[in-house]
């Protein structure tokens, strides 16, 4: 069979690109090292949050957004400082992506059948000045049906093209080499892995049963990042974030291993911004793990007291939901790789959401009845399950017992009850007036000026140690590996560039392996909802560019 294009990786970026090229009448071979039931990759597991600008959902909630404000926020967040070299193409991709998010992104997805939850979330608020990191307004649009519903329309079209013969899909095909002739990439070679019947996301065997070689005019690499390969994460860990954590949880399956980055580099592709990565600070061990070392991220509201491993309260902007990278740096510089939340039952029942499609069955199942249940007293069922069964949760009726339980859990006896009591009592005294010098309390009150937060996301301000707000809850938080912000440098068509800045003939990249565009569209920091969107945009752009090149 003669193919026009080979796509390496059947995640969201690979599926989108495959659809675009098949729509243009091209013959596509889609390869992936995982079984067929893994189609969609990490996107299937996601919460389904997308960054949109000036959307109908925002306008209905009274949010005034604009392309100019979004670009201001992106620049303040990214902090591009390598613009003559490593950031050159990333910044160009960033501007194009903001245009897309403020333009046809929503209408394009709407035509594909994607719908959105009406309440827009407000993630990564920053906590700095207007020109600094964070979203100035809520932009986190949750797909109705979460990650699976975002993957579904693209998977459906790929399967239709498989039936017609325009797309051939071979799972359990692990690419080991890119084939080159006369400086151009002309195909791939690799290993056929033993068939697997594991459930989606579980670790799979790597036993080799055969070998393959396929040729095409173009190869598109869409293989994802390095988040499942902790050795590679530590190797690229930047000094500015302190020492790499000795212990991390995995927010992605083991197959997110970064193999294709090294393989593409060996073929001449340039990797830039290796030291930029996005890991979460609010990870908890999954009591019901799917993959090895499986962690879940808490998407916190603003009210929990955040303490380091020794019980010291973190300063601004290291508050829940404000600046992930700043807080990661602060945690690592303590010399410990974990931290703590202390909160009340009133806070957890309104402010704790868990990232991931499987942790949000109401949204994933598109159940209005279940969604309305979030307004009822008590923690959501998935959160309650962690409270009941998760090893990182401690519940007590008074602070002294809570701190004793925290020390038992860590095994390090680092926490002093009197010091923690002093800090929380001082915070609680600030609740006696409507004004305060505690910026976390100011932020809580400010959050509730946004209707979406007031309704379903932020608890009314209250005293932590008042027994009527109890019981008290402590949560041990781990570092959770997630996204690669650097990657293969690409031009605005998705063509992979070499060390001299020239496009390698026949080689394209999309998705996380390309730093979500240009080798680093996010710079140092990411605005939430831009990872899935980056896969959509780079896959679409590269797919259309390849189709145009082959016409």
TrEMBL record:
<dbReference type="Pfam" id="PF00890">
    <property type="entry name" value="FAD_binding_2"/>
</dbReference>
<dbReference type="InterPro" id="IPR027477">
    <property type="entry name" value="Succ_DH/fumarate_Rdtase_cat_sf"/>
</dbReference>
<dbReference type="InterPro" id="IPR014614">
    <property type="entry name" value="KsdD_DH"/>
</dbReference>
<protein>
    <submittedName>
        <fullName>FAD-binding dehydrogenase</fullName>
    </submittedName>
</protein>
<dbReference type="InterPro" id="IPR003953">
    <property type="entry name" value="FAD-dep_OxRdtase_2_FAD-bd"/>
</dbReference>
<dbReference type="InterPro" id="IPR036188">
    <property type="entry name" value="FAD/NAD-bd_sf"/>
</dbReference>
<feature type="domain" description="FAD-dependent oxidoreductase 2 FAD-binding">
    <location>
        <begin position="4"/>
        <end position="532"/>
    </location>
</feature>
<keyword id="KW-0285">Flavoprotein</keyword>
<keyword id="KW-0560">Oxidoreductase</keyword>
């Amino acid at each position: 069979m003669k193919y026009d294009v080979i796509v390496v990786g059947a995640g969201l970026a690979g599926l989108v690109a495959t659809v675009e090229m098949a729509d243009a009448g091209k013959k596509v071979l889609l390869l992936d090292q995982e079984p067929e039931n893994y189609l969609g990759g990490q996107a299937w597991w996601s919460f389904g949050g997308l960054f949109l600008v000036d959307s109908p959902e925002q306008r209905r909630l009274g949010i005034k957004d604009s392309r100019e404000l979004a670009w201001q926020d992106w620049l303040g967040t990214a902090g591009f400082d390598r613009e003559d070299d490593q950031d050159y193409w990333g910044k160009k991709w960033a501007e194009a992506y903001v245009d897309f998010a403020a333009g046809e992104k929503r209408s394009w997805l709407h035509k594909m059948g994607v719908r959105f939850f009406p309440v827009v979330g407000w993630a990564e608020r920053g906590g700095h000045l207007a020109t600094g990191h964070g979203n100035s307004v809520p932009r986190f649009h949750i797909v109705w049906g979460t990650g699976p519903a975002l993957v579904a329309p693209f998977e459906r079209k790929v399967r239709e093209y498989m039936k017609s013969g325009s797309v051939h899909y071979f799972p359990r095909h692990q690419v080991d080499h890119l084939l080159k002739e006369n400086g151009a990439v002309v195909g791939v070679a690799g290993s056929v892995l033993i068939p697997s019947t594991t459930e989606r996301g579980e670790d799979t065997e790597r036993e080799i049963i055969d070998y393959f070689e396929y040729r095409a005019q173009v190869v598109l690499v869409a293989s994802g990042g390095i988040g499942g390969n902790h050795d590679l994460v530590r190797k690229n860990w930047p000094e500015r974030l302190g020492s790499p954590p000795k212990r991390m949880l995995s927010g992605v399956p083991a197959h997110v291993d970064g193999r294709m980055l090294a393989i593409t580099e060996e073929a001449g592709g340039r990797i830039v911004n290796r030291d930029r990565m996005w890991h979460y600070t609010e990870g908890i061990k999954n009591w019901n793990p799917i993959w090895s070392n499986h962690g879940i991220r808490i998407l916190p509201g603003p009210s929990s007291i955040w303490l380091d491993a020794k019980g010291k309260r973190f300063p601004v902007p290291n508050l829940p939901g404000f600046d992930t990278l700043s807080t990661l740096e602060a945690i690592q510089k303590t010399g410990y790789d974990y931290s703590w939340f202390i909160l009340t039952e009133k806070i957890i029942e309104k402010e704790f959401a868990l990232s991931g499609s499987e942790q949000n069955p109401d949204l994933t199942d598109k159940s209005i009845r279940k969604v309305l249940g979030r307004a009822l007293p008590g923690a959501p069922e998935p959160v309650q399950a962690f409270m009941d069964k998760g090893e990182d949760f401690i519940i007590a009726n008074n602070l002294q017992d809570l701190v004793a339980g925290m020390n038992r859990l860590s095994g390090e006896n680092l926490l002093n009850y009197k010091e923690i009591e002093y800090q929380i009592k001082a915070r609680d005294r600030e609740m006696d007036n409507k004004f305060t010098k505690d910026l976390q309390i100011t932020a809580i009150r400010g959050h509730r000026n946004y209707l979406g937060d007031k309704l379903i996301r932020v608890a009314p301000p209250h005293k932590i140690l008042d027994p009527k707000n109890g019981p008290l809850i402590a949560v041990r938080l781990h570092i959770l590996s997630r996204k690669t912000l650097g990657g293969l440098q690409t031009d605005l068509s998705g063509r992979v560039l070499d060390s001299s800045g020239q496009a390698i003939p026949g080689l394209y990249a999309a998705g996380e392996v390309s730093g979500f565009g240009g080798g680093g569209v996010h710079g140092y920091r990411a605005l939430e909802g831009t990872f899935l969107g980056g896969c959509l945009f780079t896959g679409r752009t590269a797919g259309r560019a390849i189709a145009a090149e082959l016409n």
